[in-house]
Amino acid sequence: MTHTEIRDKFLKFFEERGHKIVPSFSLVPENDPSVLFTTAGMQPMIPYLLGEIHPEGKRIANSQKCFRAQDIEEVGDNRHTTFFEMLGNWSFGDYWKKEQLNWIFDFLVNEAKINPQNLYITVFAGNNQIPRDTESVQIWKELFKKVDIEAVDLENAEQEGMRNGRIFYYSDKKNWWSLSGTPEEMAVGQPGGPDSEMFYDFGNTEQHDFEKYGPACHVNCDCGRYLEIGNNVFMEYQKQANGSFKPLPQKNIDFGGGLERITAASQNQSDIFSTDFFETIMEAVKKHVTKPLDGERSLRIISDHLRASVFLISEKLRPSNKDRGYILRRLIRRATMHATLRGGDKYPFMEIFDSIIDTYKDTAYYSEINANREEIEKVLHEEAQRFSSRIREGEEHYLKFGKKISGEEAFLLEQSYGFPIELLKELAKRDGKEIDETRFRKEKEQHQEISRAGAEKKFGGHGLLMDTGELKAGNEEELKKATRLHTATHLLHASLRKVLGPDVHQAGSDITSERLRFDFTFPRKMTPEEIKRVEDMVNEAVQKDYSVTKEELSYEDAIKSGALAFFKLKYPPKVNVYSVGDFSKELCGGPHVSRTREIGKIKITKEEAISAGVRRIRATVE
């Protein structure tokens, strides 16, 4: 069964069960500065998981374009890609585990034609807050029984292996899902929950390296025998400021299944690059890249990176040295290096580009890549051409290096020829050379220190540059205005918590001499009355002319004292705690006024959503 057929069957299957089919969201998240790309199908659904009403109802399904830059180093094995499609279905407070597990088992076995004998399941073993998921275990046992399989549930697979088991309990490091990862890694306000994952056994037992992968092969093993093809998340909890969890207003189902991986299981291909998804693309790569840098691995990297680049460019992204543009540039340059080094003068991307277009030509779901074909081709050509000439010069210098490449030499290659350290590492690995990465990092840090604006010296560090925007240290009047606004954020934070509740927590800020911008966790729009109460409370604190005092404490003592912290930051062992009378107490690096009357009158100019569960206030002072 082809990937196109599986995608179509999935959407039709859930449409017949009352789900509205919605388009894929953009790869570039809207109004969400916390992430560069859409990394999971559930990411755009967070508001509805938190309780907002979806305009299409309580049952939704789609195939979502996703991109994960963190997987870039893994590309080249049998299962990792940067760009992928995620088949998804959601229940926003409607059906629960029994319906979901019955439906997804039915789809995999009867629609995608996956052999149930090769299916294995993992479930949440429970922790000190969330109970063990025995309900899912019982449902799975009944489903396997229908296809004459006795599903034995077992513990400790990582240490003891499979032991003829079918269902396996794992900790919250494996069977818990949120955008940030484990329960400990979750941000305040994020939704999450235990999950039940499905794995396909390709049976290639010879590839388990005991020294590399551990004492036993099991479904969550990294050796590649078992491939995760889908994840049923029971999204029913929300992270609290004190680290605990409270139930969401509704129980949600969040299913995500990698289309590339489900296709591999359906076709019983242990390598996703051998499926029809990549068949045409890989043929083009093999035809036009005759001397790849690293054999078969290079061919897979080129196939994946160019496919991802095509989709990113179709969304109007362009190569640059910042944020998303940097990731796109890195993809194209990495593909260029693997295609052209010691493999001739021609970078064969245009022929490979055509094969990517052909792969999706019958997929109306992603019509944008065909609609933007000429522009995509132009961007790819220009970036590859630009880097190809530089990579030749860089390689000439690289070849002069000895077996041990100094940090200074590595930094020279990056600065002068655009050779990122990860590309240099691939060349060094191929040629048996060593790189002094510790010295490289020091060289890079020294360069960044020299380039950095003087604002950090003025303000005293740990996190302040994030709060000062484009402010320059040389303008004393601007610094004075920004100092007033910075202290105002402390009053604003405290007032929001007093009006909206203790679950409110800072999620970022940006300050110039003209205005402040303050982001905070909160699941809904503030009412006009709430905004007015917050504004009045801040101004009352200003008029009371509280003194602003600073105390230096260890981080642990500061938190014990009741001081608030911006938990996403990494603080030094000693921190500054600023208290505004008995009104506010926070970890901060300055700058601050000495008394609150210096701030002036605050005016909230706007309150808006910037991402799921995160709001933004803009304000000025008079």
Automatic annotation (TrEMBL):
Primary location recorded for the protein, binned into one broad class: cytoplasm
Details of cofactor binding: Binds 1 zinc ion per subunit.
Chain segments annotated as coiled-coil in the UniProt record: none
PROSITE patterns with a match to the protein in the record: AA_TRNA_LIGASE_II_ALA
Record-level GO cellular component terms: cytoplasm
Cellular compartments annotated: Cytoplasm
UniProt KW keywords: Aminoacyl-tRNA synthetase, ATP-binding, Cytoplasm, Ligase, Metal-binding, Nucleotide-binding, Protein biosynthesis, RNA-binding, tRNA-binding, Zinc
Entry keyword annotation includes Cell membrane: no
Protein function: Catalyzes the attachment of alanine to tRNA(Ala) in a two-step reaction: alanine is first activated by ATP to form Ala-AMP and then transferred to the acceptor end of tRNA(Ala). Also edits incorrectly charged Ser-tRNA(Ala) and Gly-tRNA(Ala) via its editing domain.
The protein's name in its UniProt record: Alanine--tRNA ligase
Source organism: Candidatus Yanofskybacteria bacterium RIFCSPHIGHO2_01_FULL_41_26
Upper classification of the organism: Bacteria, Candidatus Yanofskyibacteriota
